[in-house]
Structure formats: C-alpha cells, structure tokens
C-alpha cells in the first residue's frame, strides 16, 4: 500500500507493508526519539502527534496516517528544548529513556491547557512509564516551566 503524509513538516510518500505500525514507520524514517518499551500501549514511550493529537504509535497502523500530519520529537525541537531543560533541572531524567514520550505528552498538555492543576498534569502523564523516578521531578519541572511561562520566579 502507498501512503502519503507529512512527517515533521516534510511530505512523505512511502510503500508500506500490511500491518506496519506507525511506530515502525517513523523509526524507519529516522525518528529515533520514538521508542517501543512495551508493545502493549502501556508505557507512552512511542507517543507521536497524529494531526496534533498524542497517540501511541505502537498501536496505530501506519495506514491510518495516510493523508495526516505526524510529528515526533525530532519535529518539535524548539518546544521540546524549552520544556526539557526544566525536567533536566529537576533531576527527572535519570536514565532518559522515558523522556521523549514524557515531553511529547507534556507538550500536548500545555497546548491544550497552559495552566493545568496537579490532578490534570497527573492524568495527562498517567500513561508514561518511568522506572527511575517517582514522577515528582517531572511534576516539579512542569511547575517550574509554568512559572517561567508566566514570567515568574521559575524563570
């Protein structure tokens, strides 16, 4: 099957195999930030944006992306770098394996709700598995980032 989509702002036309996941497709196109930690839609490591909505690429067929826009962390470097520094500052990236999925979901959260409550933050990041931390560093990083965006002390 031939699909046409926009991957990180660039038009792509590709021949794909039946059953190819979006995860396999973006990895084959050099998007190494997208990782597969479980293959069961439980860890969040494979999060990408499909038409600006976060999806778990290990559970979406590449064929569903035909005619769509797909963004990975490689295509969101400015947003990711700005926010990622706050996560790193809080020591929340011990091994770094979960960071791409965590950052993708945080970007989605901030796009939808620039001033989320703690409960909303926890709900949005609930699907991200991190084996190194207790998520408190991520939460502190998100709060510091929100302060920075407001022009407060976290800047």
TrEMBL record:
Q: Which Gene3D superfamilies match?
A: 3.10.20.30, [2Fe-2S]-binding domain
| Organism superkingdom | Bacteria
Q: Which UniProt keywords apply?
A: 2Fe-2S, Iron, Iron-sulfur, Metal-binding
Sequence intervals crossing the membrane: none
* SUPFAM superfamilies documented for this protein: 2Fe-2S ferredoxin-like, CO dehydrogenase ISP C-domain like
Q: Does the keyword NAD apply?
A: no
| Gene Ontology molecular functions | 2 iron, 2 sulfur cluster binding; metal ion binding; oxidoreductase activity
Q: Does the keyword Mitochondrion apply?
A: no
The 2Fe-2S ferredoxin-type domain covers 1-76
Q: Cite the PANTHER family for this sequence.
A: OXIDOREDUCTASE WITH IRON-SULFUR SUBUNIT (PTHR44379), XANTHINE DEHYDROGENASE IRON-SULFUR-BINDING SUBUNIT XDHC-RELATED (PTHR44379:SF8)
Name of the protein this chain belongs to: (2Fe-2S)-binding protein
Origin species, per record, is Candidatus Merdiplasma excrementigallinarum
